[in-house]
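User: Some background: our group keeps a shared notebook of sequences we're curious about, and every so often someone picks one and asks for a predicted structure to add to the entry. Today it's my turn. The entry only has the sequence so far, pasted here. Could you supply the structure so I can complete it?
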Amino acid sequence: RVAVRAGYPFVVEQRMIDYRVLLWTWRFGNAVLSRQPIAAVQGVELPGEPLWDKLMVGATGGVACDIQLGARTFRLFAVHLSAMGGEPVRVQSARALVAAAAASPWPVVIAGDLNATAPGLPDAVSDSAGANTLAVFDASGRFQRSPPGATAAESQFTYSALLPVRVIDWILIPKSWRFLSYTVDASRISDHRAVVADIAVPAAEP
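Assistant: Of course. Here's the predicted structure to add to the notebook entry:
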Protein backbone atom coordinates (compact mmCIF):
# COMPACT_ATOMS: atom_id res chain seq x y z
CA ARG A 1 0.00 0.00 0.00
CA VAL A 2 2.82 2.40 0.83
CA ALA A 3 4.54 1.63 -2.48
CA VAL A 4 1.39 2.29 -4.50
CA ARG A 5 0.40 5.47 -2.67
CA ALA A 6 3.93 6.91 -2.71
CA GLY A 7 4.78 5.92 -6.28
CA TYR A 8 7.45 3.27 -5.81
CA PRO A 9 7.14 0.84 -8.75
CA PHE A 10 9.89 -1.56 -7.60
CA VAL A 11 9.26 -3.51 -4.40
CA VAL A 12 11.10 -6.34 -2.65
CA GLU A 13 9.41 -8.08 0.26
CA GLN A 14 11.36 -10.50 2.44
CA ARG A 15 9.06 -12.34 4.80
CA MET A 16 10.88 -13.83 7.78
CA ILE A 17 7.83 -15.00 9.74
CA ASP A 18 4.04 -14.96 9.37
CA TYR A 19 1.41 -15.18 12.10
CA ARG A 20 -2.19 -16.01 11.23
CA VAL A 21 -5.12 -15.93 13.62
CA LEU A 22 -8.53 -16.47 12.03
CA LEU A 23 -8.78 -13.80 9.30
CA TRP A 24 -5.82 -11.74 10.50
CA THR A 25 -2.27 -12.16 9.20
CA TRP A 26 0.85 -10.47 10.50
CA ARG A 27 3.93 -10.56 8.26
CA PHE A 28 7.36 -9.62 9.55
CA GLY A 29 10.57 -9.11 7.61
CA ASN A 30 12.40 -6.56 5.48
CA ALA A 31 11.19 -4.55 2.51
CA VAL A 32 12.80 -2.31 -0.08
CA LEU A 33 10.76 0.25 -2.04
CA SER A 34 12.51 1.91 -4.95
CA ARG A 35 11.77 4.32 -7.76
CA GLN A 36 14.81 2.94 -9.59
CA PRO A 37 15.07 -0.55 -11.11
CA ILE A 38 16.21 -3.37 -8.85
CA ALA A 39 18.50 -5.51 -10.97
CA ALA A 40 19.05 -8.43 -8.60
CA VAL A 41 17.87 -9.65 -5.20
CA GLN A 42 19.35 -12.15 -2.78
CA GLY A 43 18.45 -13.15 0.77
CA VAL A 44 21.13 -12.67 3.41
CA GLU A 45 21.34 -15.26 6.16
CA LEU A 46 23.08 -13.89 9.23
CA PRO A 47 25.02 -16.16 11.59
CA GLY A 48 24.48 -17.06 15.19
CA GLU A 49 20.70 -16.77 15.39
CA PRO A 50 19.48 -18.83 18.37
CA LEU A 51 16.91 -21.51 17.51
CA TRP A 52 14.54 -20.31 20.22
CA ASP A 53 14.73 -16.78 18.77
CA LYS A 54 13.68 -18.08 15.36
CA LEU A 55 10.76 -20.00 16.88
CA MET A 56 9.60 -17.13 19.07
CA VAL A 57 9.92 -14.08 16.83
CA GLY A 58 11.20 -15.39 13.50
CA ALA A 59 14.61 -15.43 11.92
CA THR A 60 16.23 -12.06 11.60
CA GLY A 61 18.34 -11.46 8.53
CA GLY A 62 18.52 -9.29 5.50
CA VAL A 63 18.03 -8.88 1.80
CA ALA A 64 20.58 -7.56 -0.71
CA CYS A 65 19.24 -5.52 -3.62
CA ASP A 66 21.30 -4.24 -6.55
CA ILE A 67 19.70 -0.92 -7.44
CA GLN A 68 20.40 0.84 -10.72
CA LEU A 69 20.93 4.60 -10.81
CA GLY A 70 21.23 5.24 -14.51
CA ALA A 71 24.52 3.65 -15.57
CA ARG A 72 25.50 3.08 -11.93
CA THR A 73 24.62 0.30 -9.51
CA PHE A 74 24.83 0.12 -5.75
CA ARG A 75 24.03 -2.74 -3.39
CA LEU A 76 21.60 -2.11 -0.55
CA PHE A 77 21.50 -4.46 2.41
CA ALA A 78 18.18 -4.04 4.22
CA VAL A 79 18.70 -5.80 7.53
CA HIS A 80 17.18 -6.57 10.90
CA LEU A 81 19.72 -7.79 13.45
CA SER A 82 18.83 -9.98 16.40
CA ALA A 83 17.20 -8.45 19.46
CA MET A 84 16.95 -11.64 21.52
CA GLY A 85 20.40 -13.05 20.72
CA GLY A 86 22.27 -10.16 22.29
CA GLU A 87 25.43 -8.34 21.25
CA PRO A 88 27.46 -11.52 20.52
CA VAL A 89 24.99 -12.48 17.76
CA ARG A 90 24.86 -8.93 16.39
CA VAL A 91 28.66 -8.69 16.31
CA GLN A 92 28.82 -11.91 14.28
CA SER A 93 26.19 -10.50 11.94
CA ALA A 94 28.11 -7.25 11.53
CA ARG A 95 31.27 -9.16 10.63
CA ALA A 96 29.33 -11.19 8.05
CA LEU A 97 27.93 -7.98 6.52
CA VAL A 98 31.39 -6.39 6.38
CA ALA A 99 32.67 -9.51 4.56
CA ALA A 100 29.71 -9.34 2.16
CA ALA A 101 30.44 -5.67 1.49
CA ALA A 102 34.08 -6.49 0.77
CA ALA A 103 32.96 -9.10 -1.77
CA SER A 104 30.46 -6.80 -3.48
CA PRO A 105 31.34 -5.44 -6.94
CA TRP A 106 29.25 -2.34 -6.12
CA PRO A 107 29.31 0.31 -3.38
CA VAL A 108 27.32 -0.93 -0.37
CA VAL A 109 24.71 0.75 1.81
CA ILE A 110 23.45 -0.99 4.96
CA ALA A 111 20.18 0.18 6.47
CA GLY A 112 17.70 -1.06 9.04
CA ASP A 113 17.04 -1.98 12.63
CA LEU A 114 20.45 -3.06 13.88
CA ASN A 115 19.25 -3.35 17.49
CA ALA A 116 22.69 -2.00 18.39
CA THR A 117 24.09 1.23 19.77
CA ALA A 118 27.50 2.71 19.02
CA PRO A 119 30.13 2.96 21.79
CA GLY A 120 29.57 5.98 24.00
CA LEU A 121 25.88 6.34 23.15
CA PRO A 122 23.15 5.45 25.69
CA ASP A 123 22.75 1.72 26.37
CA ALA A 124 25.79 0.71 24.30
CA VAL A 125 26.94 -2.83 25.09
CA SER A 126 29.78 -5.16 24.07
CA ASP A 127 30.19 -8.91 23.85
CA SER A 128 32.42 -10.88 26.23
CA ALA A 129 35.47 -10.03 24.11
CA GLY A 130 34.71 -6.32 24.20
CA ALA A 131 33.41 -6.13 20.62
CA ASN A 132 30.53 -3.83 19.67
CA THR A 133 28.34 -4.10 16.55
CA LEU A 134 28.75 -0.52 15.34
CA ALA A 135 32.44 -0.60 16.22
CA VAL A 136 32.82 -3.55 13.83
CA PHE A 137 31.42 -1.44 10.98
CA ASP A 138 33.58 1.53 12.02
CA ALA A 139 36.74 -0.57 12.19
CA SER A 140 36.19 -1.95 8.69
CA GLY A 141 36.91 1.50 7.27
CA ARG A 142 34.16 0.98 4.70
CA PHE A 143 31.28 2.91 6.21
CA GLN A 144 30.27 6.18 7.77
CA ARG A 145 27.28 6.74 10.03
CA SER A 146 25.29 9.46 11.72
CA PRO A 147 25.73 10.36 14.49
CA PRO A 148 29.39 9.75 13.65
CA GLY A 149 30.91 9.74 17.13
CA ALA A 150 30.14 8.86 20.73
CA THR A 151 27.52 11.55 21.33
CA ALA A 152 24.00 12.02 20.03
CA ALA A 153 21.33 14.66 20.46
CA GLU A 154 17.98 13.57 21.81
CA SER A 155 16.48 14.36 18.38
CA GLN A 156 18.67 11.59 16.91
CA PHE A 157 17.31 8.82 19.15
CA THR A 158 15.26 6.25 17.22
CA TYR A 159 13.79 3.95 19.86
CA SER A 160 11.19 3.90 21.15
CA ALA A 161 8.91 6.08 19.05
CA LEU A 162 6.90 7.20 22.06
CA LEU A 163 9.86 7.85 24.36
CA PRO A 164 13.13 7.71 22.37
CA VAL A 165 16.15 7.00 24.57
CA ARG A 166 18.69 5.36 22.23
CA VAL A 167 19.92 4.99 18.65
CA ILE A 168 19.45 1.49 17.23
CA ASP A 169 18.30 2.20 13.65
CA TRP A 170 21.02 3.17 11.19
CA ILE A 171 21.91 4.00 7.60
CA LEU A 172 25.55 3.19 6.84
CA ILE A 173 27.00 4.56 3.60
CA PRO A 174 30.39 4.20 1.86
CA LYS A 175 33.18 6.41 3.15
CA SER A 176 33.42 8.20 -0.20
CA TRP A 177 29.73 9.17 -0.16
CA ARG A 178 28.30 12.10 1.77
CA PHE A 179 25.24 12.73 3.92
CA LEU A 180 23.49 15.88 2.72
CA SER A 181 20.96 15.53 5.52
CA TYR A 182 20.15 12.96 8.18
CA THR A 183 17.04 13.24 10.32
CA VAL A 184 14.89 11.13 12.60
CA ASP A 185 11.17 11.50 11.94
CA ALA A 186 8.91 11.71 14.99
CA SER A 187 6.08 9.77 13.34
CA ARG A 188 4.57 7.05 15.55
CA ILE A 189 3.40 4.66 12.85
CA SER A 190 5.96 2.20 14.24
CA ASP A 191 7.52 1.48 17.63
CA HIS A 192 10.73 2.83 16.04
CA ARG A 193 11.17 6.32 14.63
CA ALA A 194 12.06 6.53 10.94
CA VAL A 195 15.54 7.53 9.79
CA VAL A 196 15.60 9.71 6.65
CA ALA A 197 18.78 10.58 4.76
CA ASP A 198 19.68 12.48 1.60
CA ILE A 199 22.95 11.17 0.19
CA ALA A 200 25.40 12.50 -2.41
CA VAL A 201 27.42 10.05 -4.52
CA PRO A 202 30.78 11.15 -5.97
CA ALA A 203 30.68 11.70 -9.71
CA ALA A 204 33.81 9.58 -10.25
CA GLU A 205 32.32 6.40 -8.78
CA PRO A 206 31.06 3.64 -11.08
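Suggested note for the entry: The longest strand covers residues 10-21. Helices lie at 2-6, 51-57, 86-103, 133-140.
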